[in-house]
Design a protein that fits this description.
5-stranded mixed beta sheet, DHH_sf (chains A, B), about 40% helix, homodimer, 2 domains, 5-stranded parallel beta sheet, Oligoribo/pAp-PDE_c-di-AMP_PDE (chains A, B), Diaminopimelate Epimerase, Chain A, domain 1, metal ion binding (chains A, B), inorganic diphosphate phosphatase activity (chains A, B), 10 strands, 11 helices, alpha/beta, hydrolase (chains A, B)
């Protein structure tokens, strides 16, 4: 068994970084050589979590095939969200909580997919099933990933599995989940310190929907005005990125983590399909209120998929 | 939670039938309403197993959307091997040991994939992990599926997980694994009683390789002459099925289960790619010896994929 790399998606968020760290540790405990790496620098929220638990950022890689023959994916499976040379390596393991899209392999593999709120929760149950102890700093990162992806259990993606894992991880990590969680989420919402590109593209993912390329960014905030006071500049950046990367549609979902509502900003083509997806009209500022929407995966991508591919 | 159907692939083999039965039972024990069904009548080997353990064949369905909104797949994920209206239902669960190919979903789901010799083995470990007792007749079917897919642990797909599951299941089922296993395998090789179509297509699967449709059948025997004495008729049937169904290439892998060797029969286009795949020439009878080859999944599909898509 030769060494493998373990990594999450591009534009890494806290759940992706935590999952890579924890799954590499898990594989190490089972006797396999695995190194957690990242496809980008940690965001402010993840930096807060790493700092809290005394960990350094993961090494950032651009390509995998120059280092290893085989990789393990966490928190993603869509090739366009992965390392650029994924087709040059084989994928031996996937641990994920997203839909399957465009992911094909030449050989059988290990896949552990659950429709849970975070991959951190799936991994927590995997450690429990094999009776492997979770060190405090790994538990702290898994707790952070779980809090980040479920917005402290408020997202509709939250399951009973997540609700059970949260206090279990908080105890192992030695922190108060609610207090620490709100601090961590707020650390990720300091928009004044973020560039326009970081806001629109920092957490963005590309989706191939009905033959078109749809880019969907999401930004968390405690005040939607912090986003839309900069709307003109953000739209300019979205148009610029679309031109450079060939996106047909660019959507930014601005989510207020305190009241769990979102507002959508639209740029590009297919306005009719976006309106059909959410059964609402874009206003003359190219925006649409999405009350109660906080989950891109569960509340944004599925209706868009239906509208673009239906 | 409304009722879901649980089924394996078209042209069901023993592992697919056993997996559907066992996973439906497993879901029932967890409190969910699930019914095991089949996409075709059981083959002779599966009939032998059902008879041994006092079970009736599963109900055969043609479509799923007329009965349920959601289904659970076992032992397959490629849509062309599944129910014809798979795109009309959502897939909530997959338990499988094949590569991922062309399988996409609109939403996150439960997937338990392992590169083990049989899905029966994966399910055995799932019962163990949840401490759910396996009734004797379900254990007998899982044992049969495991023996069938691994040719009594002789196939190169066999893993330590399969080797551990076999005696465990045999004890629960109350049979001698080697004695019962050889009888069951032989029951599936009574070629005299099989039509040409049953031989070439009874266990066949379609693979989309590099834009072409490749049909690959496999037949087990205790004497390769029982197959090739009928070669002219088999080729006629393969050509006929290719014309009707648009297969570009049709391969029949005849496997001697006693000495673990195979002989390939070729019909259609792309002879050069088939020869490249196995680094050998087809003889003037359109045949090629494949010494040591018994596994379509591990020893036939991967080299063909490389040759057709490389």
């Amino acid at each position: 068994m030769t060494k493998e790399l373990v990594f999450g998606h591009q534009n890494p968020d806290t759940d992706t970084i935590a999952s890579a760290m924890a799954f590499a540790y898990y594989q190490n405990q089972l006797g396999y050589e695995a190194e957690a790496v990242a496809l980008g620098e940690p965001n402010d929220e993840t930096k807060f979590a790493l700092n809290q638990f005394g960990l350094k950022p993961l090494r950032v890689i651009e390509t995998a095939a120059n280092e290893v023959e085989s990789v393990m994916l966490v928190d993603h499976n869509e090739p366009q969200q992965s390392v650029s040379d994924l087709d040059q390596v084989s994928v031996s393991h996937v641990v994920d909580h997203h839909r399957i899209n465009g992911f094909n392999t030449a050989a059988p593999l290990y896949m552990q997919l659950r429709p849970f709120g975070s991959v951190s929760t799936i991994l927590t149950e995997m450690f429990q099933a094999k009776n492997i102890n979770i060190p405090a700093e790994i538990a702290g990162m898994l707790l952070s990933g779980l809090i980040s992806d479920t917005l402290l259990l408020k997202s509709p993606t939250t399951t009973d599995h997540d609700r059970e894992a949260l206090p279990y991880l908080a105890k192992l990590a030695g922190v108060d989940a609610d207090k620490y969680g709100l601090e961590m989420l707020k650390a990720g919402t300091n928009l004044a310190a973020k560039s326009d590109e970081q806001i629109v593209d920092g957490d963005a993912k590309t989706f191939e929907l009905g033959g078109t390329k749809v880019r969907i960014g999401q930004v968390n905030t405690v005040d939607l005005n912090d986003v839309f006071d900069r709307q003109a500049d953000l739209e300019t950046k979205m148009n610029e990125l679309s031109a450079t990367n060939g996106y047909d549609t660019f959507l930014l979902v601005a989510t207020n983590i305190l009241d769990s509502d979102s507002e959508l900003l639209f740029v590009g083509a297919n306005a009719d399909k976006v309106e059909a997806a959410f059964d609402a009209k874009l206003n003359d500022q190219h925006r649409m209120a999405l009350p109660g929407v906080v989950s891109r995966k569960k509340q944004v991508v599925p209706p868009l998929t239906a509208a673009f591919e239906g």
